[in-house]
Here is the input.
Amino acid sequence: MVMDSDRDYYCSMKFRFLKVDLESKTTYNCHAAQPHPVDFVWLEKNPGQLFNTSINVSERKQMLVNQRNASCEQNCWRAEDHGAKSPRQGQGGVAKTHLDPVTAPEILDITVGSDCNLTCSYCTKEFSNAWRRDIMEHGAYKLSEYAENRYDLDSKDRVLIKISQPELTQSRRYQELLREIKLKIPNLKQLVITGGEPFLNNQLVDLLSDASINSQTEIEIYTGLGVNVTRLSKMLDKLKHIPKLVLKISAENINRFLEFNRYGINHDDFVSKVNLIKQKGIDFSFHAVVSNLTIFGFKEFYDYFSEHNIILTFAYQPQMMSPYVLDNDSKIFLKENLKTLPGKYLDPLIKSIEETPTNIDRINIGEFLTQFVARRPDLNLNIYPQSFLNWIGLKNVV
Here is the structure.
């Protein structure tokens, strides 16, 4: 862990934001933080206080005395250690807004479930049951050195695979968390819905039609558009009356890079759904996850959708997909490829690839890609530069 007394470890998101995963029964005191399991015994004694659990209050106290807390390591502190822009910095978290560790949420992010038709390259079983099915069918991914339980199934995963959406949403704990959430909904500035794929969730319309939601509350739905167009159209019709609704479309590539990194959707289908959203008159922007696998096609994505707002998030989890885990020739290519982008995109993108990768990350990404493609016979690694493939040990790709 890198400690620096001259650095500022405060983040206002810890004081304003709560993410609740209704399926895994966990909470995140920032969207970029690690999850904490819900203590239902404590919650029954402290109704309405899900935002002020002991771990949340403790971590806010740490920040108020400028101590670096553990749940922020994987995304924010790690990114800042590498000189890259972290989610904390990108969302204005450095501004000191609160002095009291006991507070009320302004932003509530609800993960409605992991139902998803996509296995995005950077994603995991936690947020996509398609990833769980992949591992169930083909077995765990075997990497040379990977301590995290990201590419294998544990007992909880095996239970979740067998539970239907109606069984999950009607379960006692799911309903308890839903009631807790509804206590805070009237006073929110922003309500965020994530998944999985939220448009696959049958409770989405009912949840967002709740009469207690303030008309001034901004509502965001994060979607990969991995849902058939008929269902998408019907759900958009039911939601388009919401006054401050914005769709955050998860994408950063087009054509073959889109189909590789957002596996389960094709380019033409994706574009037709974006056009459908335009036709419905619903506001949207793009949420782009920049990794060493998605950065190659980002320039073409920007050129295609440049009239729309694109928000960058940099992947440092898993570490082998950090943007800088690239060979030098690829980095030279990218600096040339990206140079026509506006500065707000160019500068953070170039900075994100400057760090020197470790050998184990180089080995791991090669092993991961070999297995990822072997399970998806319609994919081909030859969309990537040969120098990158050689560097990660894949010299015979055809």
Observations:
- The longest strand covers residues 283-290.
- Residues 59 and 69 are 6 Å apart (CA to CA).
